[in-house]
Write a structure and sequence with these properties.
Blueprint lengths: L1 E5 L13 H25 L3 E4 L11 H12 L5 E4 L12 H7 L7 E3 L6 E4 L4 E5 L25 E7 L1 E3 L11 E3 L2 H4 L4 E5 L5 E4 L2 E3 L17 E6 L8 E6 L4 E10 L2 H12 L9 E11 L1 H18 L2 E5 L3 E2 L14 H15 L4 H22 L1
Parallel strand pairs: 1-2, 2-3, 3-4, 6-7, 7-10, 8-9, 10-12, 15-16, 16-17, 16-18
Antiparallel strand pairs: 1-13, 5-6, 11-12, 13-14
Helix pairs in contact: 1-2, 5-6, 7-8
Length: 382
């Protein structure tokens, strides 16, 4: 028997650092990935998909956002989708799950598990699902504890599904909400405990696994976790499950730290480095660059054109922290002419920069903008 384990879809999620066009693309892909999960289930011969919480980002999504994932799952009538609430979409009165039921928006091939207790998953394999159900965003009790005594038939394949923090794993356990015992699978005789909440794949032990979110949703210096789901194969109630990770995400998120630019070669290298993240599909890249350094007048203009304009237009999101500073000296003033108000203003700003003090940074930025604007005017009239 096979299942697909996924979690943390967070349909309707917003990202404050992207523009409206990029936000629309990111939100659309969080829906499109459902189709890729369904296709994977068919290819692998898995008749059940377990979604371990946080189907939605908010407890009060719009009507369209509420129904969209249901309609994506409806397309796969041969696959049974099993959903539980998470901390973002807990089963609260008048919440998302109540609305779905009230409006008859749930397809026949989607099962909402809103009460704790064993549920027959697959009669042919004597497989039973044991869901843990969050009825508020945070709880201090372990909602999987009931699984230890939950009755199932002799020889049943017991599969738990929960959303929360495994106690004893990682740091800050004392501050964890929605705690889950690290040995719950062993105590409850589970063949597998499908976990949600952690956004990257993480195998706690042979039978306790976080699938991660199917679309990456955060930056990391080495590539954030997530962007995949897990196909789980069971050879029996006692045999260890066999896990196979499958990439489902489209977007690639990267954070590049301590990028120091001092020359044209550095600018070219930075652009090439970002494009190489996904050379054939630059529109799938979200890059966050922490930039510093000193550039001459011409190099600074090149940086603005090549990185801030050209590269930004090629990728879905280019997030910049910091910027290279202008390395200008008296000789650079000659490009502004021998006199006139622009030359005079630049000379005064340069003197202020060289004098230092609290106003030097403001003068540096003003001088940088003056040179860049002058360059734009010169190119426009050439």
């Amino acid at each position: 028997m096979k299942i697909v384990h996924t979690s943390d879809w967070q349909i309707g999620r917003t990202f404050s650092f992207v523009d409206d066009e990029a936000l629309g693309a990111l939100q659309a892909e969080r829906l499109n990935v459902i189709q890729r999960i369904g296709t994977l289930a068919r290819q692998e011969g898995a008749q059940h998909v377990l979604v371990a919480g946080d189907v939605y980002e908010h407890e009060t999504p719009s009507e369209r956002t509420l129904r969209q994932p249901m309609e994506r799952m409806r397309q796969f009538g041969d696959i049974q989708w099993h959903l539980i609430p998470g901390n973002h979409d807990a089963h609260t009165p008048q919440g998302v799950w109540h609305r779905l039921q009230r409006d008859h928006a749930v397809p026949d091939n989607v099962s909402l598990h809103l009460q704790s207790g064993p549920v027959l998953l697959d009669s042919g394999h004597n497989a039973w699902l044991l869901p843990a159900v969050l009825q508020r965003r945070h709880t201090v009790s372990d909602l999987t504890a009931y699984m230890d005594q939950a009755p199932t038939p002799e020889g049943a394949l017991r599969i738990g599904v929960a959303h929360g923090s495994v106690v004893g794993f990682g740091q800050g356990d004392e501050a964890q909400h929605n705690p889950i015992a690290i040995d719950r699978a062993a105590k409850a005789g589970l063949a597998y405990l499908a976990m949600g909440d952690w956004h990257g794949f993480c195998q706690i032990n042979a039978r306790t696994v976080y699938s991660g979110t199917p679309e990456v949703d955060r930056f990391g210096t080495g590539g954030a976790g997530g962007g995949e789901c897990v196909v789980v194969t069971f050879d029996g109630p006692n045999a260890p499950p066999v896990l196979n990770q499958h990439r489902t995400g489209r977007f690639v998120w990267r954070k590049l730290e301590n990028v120091v630019l001092t020359s044209r070669a550095d600018i070219d290298a930075l652009e090439n480095r970002v494009r190489a993240i996904a050379a054939d599909q630059p529109d799938t890249i979200l890059a966050w660059l922490e930039v510093a350094g000193m550039l001459g007048v011409e190099e600074l203009a090149l940086y603005e054109n090549q990185i801030e304009r050209r590269l930004r237009s090629a990728v879905t999101c280019l997030r910049l922290s910091g910027a290279p500073q202008l390395a200008a000296g008296p000789d650079d003033l000659d490009m502004l002419g021998v006199g006139g108000p622009v030359r005079g203003a630049a000379s005064a700003l340069l003197e202020q920069v060289q004098a230092g003090g609290p106003e030097a940074a403001v003068a540096q930025e003003a001088l940088q903008r003056l040179f860049l604007l002058w360059g734009e005017v010169r190119r426009a009239t050439a």
